[in-house]
Amino acid sequence: LHLVALNLPFSGDMRADFQCFQQAQLAGLTSTYRAFLSSHLQDLATVVRKTDRYHLPIVNLKGEILFSNWESVFNGNGGQFNIHIPIYSFDGRNVMTDPSWPQKVVWHGSTANGIRLVSNYCEAWHTADTGAMGQASPLKTGKLLDQKVYSCSNQFIVLCIENSFVSDPQG
């Protein structure tokens, strides 16, 4: 399952699932992509289908392995990954080095176990209000689920996860 960043940073007011869907389509990717965020309807840990949580690796756009599987992101260690393996945007830029994302921080709105934090998810990602708060993770920590709180007015990285793997019937 591919983990890919949106092509621009976003404040806490975003239509992230739609953006993930749209940018994946524009990039020519055929699978469905959902935002790597807890929402008012769903915890981050359950965004990927049950059948795909254990046996499929989580990879970047170029197929390099970030996590052995979806469940390993939520084993309580904060989504520890190798910071030497880049996370790319849908248009192929490395979010860790590209200046389009001046702040190397990822929105997630979740606990380290992928459960939604209702007090810290920018009112279900509908506000960029300075007083509202969102849970996010600085990438330099090497964790996708580090527990830091930021104002929803910040423009951070938004990740998308391929949530349904469809194998090519021709392959």
TrEMBL record:
Collagenase NC10/endostatin domain location: 1-166
Superkingdom field: Eukaryota
Pfam families named among the record's database cross-references: Endostatin
Protein name listed in UniProt: COFA1 protein
Native source species: Scopus umbretta (Hammerkop)
Upper lineage: Eukaryota, Metazoa, Chordata, Craniata, Vertebrata
